[in-house]
Amino acid sequence: MPNVFENTALVATTALDHFENNLILSKLADRQWEKKFGIDGAKVGDQIDLRRHFNPAIRTGNTFTASAITDRLRRLTIDTPLGVDYEITNADMALDFDKAEERYFAPAGRRLANEVDLRLGRLARRVANFVGTYNTAPSVLADFSVAVARLDDFGVPDEDRYFILNPTTMDAALVATSTLTNDEKTIGRQYVKGKVRRALNADWHSSQNIEVHTTGVGGGTPLVNGVPAEGATTLATDGWTGSVTDIVREGDIFTLAGINAVNPITGEDLGFLRQIAVTANGSSNASGQVTLSIDPEFRASADTGFRTMTALPADNAPLTFVTTLGSVVARSPIYCHKNWAALCIAPQPEESGVGAKMKMVSDPDGGGIGIRYAFWWDGNANTWKIRFDILIGMIAQMPEFCLRLGAA
């Protein structure tokens, strides 16, 4: 009987099929950059700078006034190799292809897909926009429609929007959307499948890989410690309980009294508080001080072309946390436009040697997404070995195009 593991092209193609078929969040992200990396095979450290939006100044009158252009960049780096490895027993070397696929190839593709989705879901920690009540599952249609209104406020395009919910929240959404006027076929299909497919001008998806967020430990009465500079991506604070590890955690969200959000194009006050995300864990020193890494940056000047808030916070302004501190654990389903996150799953070099076989396969219709398979005999261990490799990079390129919903 032929050794199915030696057919590297067939094994790699089969694993790639299972990998692609199990992606959910990853199919809803911006994947246009894969073609930039996948021409000759990507290497760890390859990168590309992505420009963020810029709004020119408006001239009143006939006198020419040139708008100063300042580029804001976010860097997408191919920096994460992921893989699944197996040792193959002599008995399994005699498996037919279907059995080998069931035992080895399909689980490898499925596990890699879930890992990429899980890591992409974690990017939601950098999203500052939040609607609902933290750690409280939505129960009525208005809990979802408010999310639509919030992205509308921020000028996010109508098309290519998605609700991506954990299974429990999807169950609540099924009940909440049952009151919508729709044709019997659509309603019937949703109840047969047990999932909402399309409502509120968005496609709906369910994933078990929605981020589970644990809030910071908290403690004390946090205050702004000095006025931050224009463009700052950190905020000095004090008033915390002293010497607490992870007193704030990545993904925590807070507001500052009197600091409102603005229309990202015109810079006009939107009438509600600017929410700010903590982008790295922070611990207090003995004096109760913490420097918070934050997003969006502090931009209050209307002359910069990318204003983020109405004013800079004053010294001693209190921080009010939207995400309840105290190590509270809650899922964070999201509502987003596809451009909120950029993802690249890049092909890698194919390098076969003596005693080893390797095959790199990619899907040209999938933007160049690829998986690499290798098969060899390890004489030292007296066993056959196989491995599946992918190389990925991802970034929250436009976190303002996404928001998190309250969910238990």
Structure characterization notes:
It is a single chain. With 408 residues, the protein is of the alpha+beta class. The chain folds into three domains: 156 residues; 101 residues, hypothetical protein PF0899 fold (2-Layer Sandwich); 112 residues, Elongation Factor Tu (Ef-tu), domain 3, CATH 2.40.30. Helices cover 19% and strands 29% of the residues. The chain is built from six helices and 23 strands. The strands form six sheets. The protein has a six-stranded mixed beta sheet with strand order 4-23-18-5-7-6. A hairpin with a 7-residue loop joins strand 20 and strand 21. It is elongated and about 75 Å long. The N and C termini lie far apart (53 Å). The model has no long low-confidence stretch (mean pLDDT 88).
Summary of the model, kept short:
The chain is of the alpha+beta class and 408 residues long.
Whole-number tally of structural domains: 3
Distance between the termini: 53 Å
User: Average pLDDT value?
Assistant: 88
The rough form would be described as: elongated
